[in-house]
Write a structure and sequence with these properties.
11% of the residues are buried. The strands form 2 sheets. A two-stranded antiparallel sheet has the order 1-2. Strands 3-4 form a two-stranded parallel ribbon. The protein has one domain. It is built from 4 helices and 4 strands; from the N terminus they run ααββαβαβ. Helix 1 crosses helix 2, helix 1 crosses helix 4 and helix 2 runs antiparallel to helix 3. 53% of the residues lie in helices and 7% in strands. A hairpin with a 2-residue loop joins strand 1 and strand 2.
Length: 123
């Protein structure tokens, strides 16, 4: 699984984690996967912060310039290239699968289901 897919899946897990229509079994699988994904998400966030630090616009004293909690990237092409390389990293994960039938009574939007597909197994 690529890091980009893992991040999308993690975002979907975050979106459904408090869904009251999920069974305990599905909630457990979500919790196990979310906990395991943290081992990849936290280092990614740190790497992304380093990239921003590397390419952020700075003032005369070398401090990063923020406007409305946003940072201007000085070399967008280089930043995007390095970010793309980071997102294409292969992640060796052992997914806790969720049977499709276990989700039949759940209310989850299609946009979230798309990102959960790596965790859903057909029967």
């Amino acid at each position: 699984m690529k890091l980009s897919e893992l991040l999308a899946c993690n975002s979907a897990l975050t979106a459904v984690k408090d869904n009251p229509t999920l069974s305990f079994k599905v909630s457990y699988a979500i919790a196990i996967n979310a906990k395991m994904f943290e081992t990849f998400v936290v280092p990614f966030q740190e790497s992304q912060k380093q990239l921003v630090d590397m390419y952020a616009e700075r003032d005369a004293e070398g401090n990063i310039i923020e406007k409305d909690n946003k940072v201007t990237i000085t070399d967008v092409e280089a930043y995007n290239s390095r970010l793309k390389t980071l997102l294409e990293t292969d992640c060796c994960v052992s997914l806790h699968m969720i049977k499709k039938s276990e989700l039949e009574t759940s209310t989850i939007s299609p946009s979230i289901v798309i990102n959960l597909l790596p965790l859903i197994e057909e029967e």
